[in-house]
């Protein structure tokens, strides 16, 4: 078991119309987990109202596993039946893992090449030339 803090993110699909109930359930479940030794905090988040996340953190892997395997946690999970279902679970140890997972993402693609010369000419003739021509006609007549 590690002594690094462990952050657990659990994703849920919530049945439309039950968002308020899920939000209340999530915060109540977090209040129950706060009674567990090693609890460091948590929250309920929504991702564009399509997916909900319950995030909680414990001071060690052992503390997190004790909550995950507890009867209280299983009872709280059973209360979501009918209005939400778990779709994913992700656990991360320590802050270093957050940064490593970001570094593992592929680098941004190479910049796009400049447009071809005929495209530049077309933009110049259609967007720049008419106003310049009009400006010259208006002020050369005076």
UniProtKB/TrEMBL annotation:
<protein>
    <recommendedName>
        <fullName>ABM domain-containing protein</fullName>
    </recommendedName>
</protein>
<dbReference type="InterPro" id="IPR038762">
    <property type="entry name" value="ABM_predict"/>
</dbReference>
<dbReference type="InterPro" id="IPR011008">
    <property type="entry name" value="Dimeric_a/b-barrel"/>
</dbReference>
């Amino acid at each position: 078991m590690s002594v690094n803090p462990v952050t657990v993110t659990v994703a849920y699909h919530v049945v439309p119309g039950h968002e308020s109930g899920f939000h209340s359930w999530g915060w109540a479940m977090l209040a129950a987990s706060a009674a567990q030794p090693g609890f460091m905090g948590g929250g309920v988040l929504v991702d564009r109202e399509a997916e909900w996340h319950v995030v909680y953190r414990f001071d060690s892997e052992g503390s997190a596993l004790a909550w995950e395997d507890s009867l209280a946690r299983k009872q709280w999970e059973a209360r979501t039946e009918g209005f939400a279902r778990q779709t994913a679970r992700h656990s991360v140890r320590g802050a270093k893992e957050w940064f490593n997972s970001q570094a593992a993402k592929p680098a941004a693609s190479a910049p796009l090449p400049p447009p071809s010369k005929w495209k530049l000419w077309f933009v110049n003739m259609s967007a720049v030339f008419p106003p310049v021509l009009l400006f010259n006609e208006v002020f050369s007549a005076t």
